[in-house]
Specification:
The complex is a heterodimer of chains A (66) and B (264).
Chain A (H helix, E strand, L loop, with lengths): L1 E4 L2 E4 L6 H7 L8 E4 L2 E3 L14 E9 L2
Parallel strand pairs in A: 1-5
Antiparallel strand pairs in A: 1-2, 3-4, 3-5
Chain B lengths: L4 E3 L2 E3 L3 E4 L6 H11 L3 E8 L10 H7 L3 E4 L7 H15 L3 E4 L12 H13 L3 E6 L3 H9 L6 E2 L13 H10 L5 E3 L5 H9 L4 E4 L1 H4 L4 H21 L27
Parallel strand pairs in B: 3-4, 3-10, 4-5, 6-7, 7-8, 9-10
Antiparallel strand pairs in B: 1-2
The chains are: A mainly beta (66), B alpha/beta (264).
């Protein structure tokens, strides 16, 4: 399915789970936060979430900052 | 823990908080964090970058040990965005602390007091220990304390400016009146300024640019650590009263008449 990930088109080949999406990006789940269509998805809800065609996903990590 | 720094429901050893921005490399940042002895270290958030997958900060910071991360809400233009950033920061770091910062104008980076106050209330209700970056305004500080913020973080001067304690007299009022720690954040340039904050009873200082932009960041981090420690000890010891005139420290008058010669 086609997703928008961090503002860019992303063809997702899995079944739409967050774990699959993170694996596609080689992202460590423990250090990532996720928003789907503008809503923050808490870690405890990740397993229950299934992404849908056209979903806008933001993958957020920690960065240097004061 | 003797004279521990209490913040939220935690206690920390160090009263020097460190920002992680502007360092030349992650390695330089990690060296500075170690040298600073900081217990609380701020991080920002950004989109994951596929081209630079390895410059994530959490892993190297986690290796230091004894460091509690404080995600900030930098980039937020209003309360709604700041709440969203805080929720994301909590997901990434697992930390109950958030440095709430809303400074929509890139020219001066001054905090928006109205949006900050609104966001602080929402985040306190969400269970965060809220550390709002704010103008050095004692009235706003009181209001932020009343709604449950864990500390207030007034600016010494503009972010990254190195102009030091431009707000000194207002900081003194805030420290005198506050029932929560006053953490002076932003604008500090030299360790003596950090010591001055601590000498007047400041709870802590947050330093980033002054260390990151020093010629030797790790050495400067150590200098700030000593200054914060010295200032804190001086405050605990109690400074002597100030006098308008000189007050001699050695014997004077008849006691030293012998200096004028015999018999006088």
């Amino acid at each position: 399915m086609n997703l928008i990930v961090n503002g860019a088109p992303h063809p997702h080949s899995g079944g739409g789970s967050i774990a699959e999406l993170l694996a596609e990006h080689r992202l460590a789940p423990a250090m990532t936060a996720i928003m789907i269509n503008g809503e923050v998805v808490r870690r405890s809800q990740w397993e229950a979430v299934r992404l849908s065609e056209g979903d806008a996903v933001e993958l957020i990590v920690a960065a240097a900052g004061g | 823990m003797d004279d521990a720094f209490r913040l939220g429901d935690r206690t920390f050893r160090s009263r020097l908080l460190l920002g992680t921005g502007k360092f030349s490399s992650v390695e330089a940042m990690v060296r500075a964090v170690r040298a600073s002895g900081a217990s609380l270290v701020t991080v920002a958030l950004r989109r994951f970058n596929r081209e630079r997958p390895d410059d994530d900060l959490c892993a190297p910071l986690a290796q230091i040990g004894g460091v509690t991360l404080v995600p900030n809400t930098s980039g937020a233009m209003n309360a709604r965005e700041a709440v969203r950033a805080a929720l994301l920061g909590r997901e990434i770091t697992g930390s109950p602390f958030v440095k709430l910062e809303i400074h929509p104008n890139p020219h001066h980076l001054l905090p928006d007091p109205i949006e900050t106050f609104e966001a602080a209330g929402l985040l306190v209700k969400e269970g965060f220990f809220v550390l709002p970056y704010m103008p050095a305004d004692p009235v706003l500080a009181r209001r932020l304390e009343d709604i449950g913020c864990a500390a207030v973080m007034p600016l010494g001067s503009a972010i990254g400016s190195g102009q030091g304690l431009a707000t000194l007299s207002m900081l003194q009022v805030m420290i005198r009146d506050a029932g929560i720690p006053v953490i002076v954040d932003a604008g500090l340039r030299s360790p003596s300024e950090a010591a001055a904050v601590m000498e007047m009873g400041g709870g802590a200082v947050l330093v980033n640019s002054a260390i990151a932009a020093a010629e030797n960041p790790a050495l400067m981090a150590g200098a700030f650590a000593m200054a914060v420690e010295a200032g804190r000890q001086a405050w605990r010891a109690g400074l002597m009263p100030r006098s308008e005139t000189a007050v001699a420290t050695s014997p004077a008058g008849p006691l030293t008449a012998f200096l004028a010669g015999a018999g006088s």
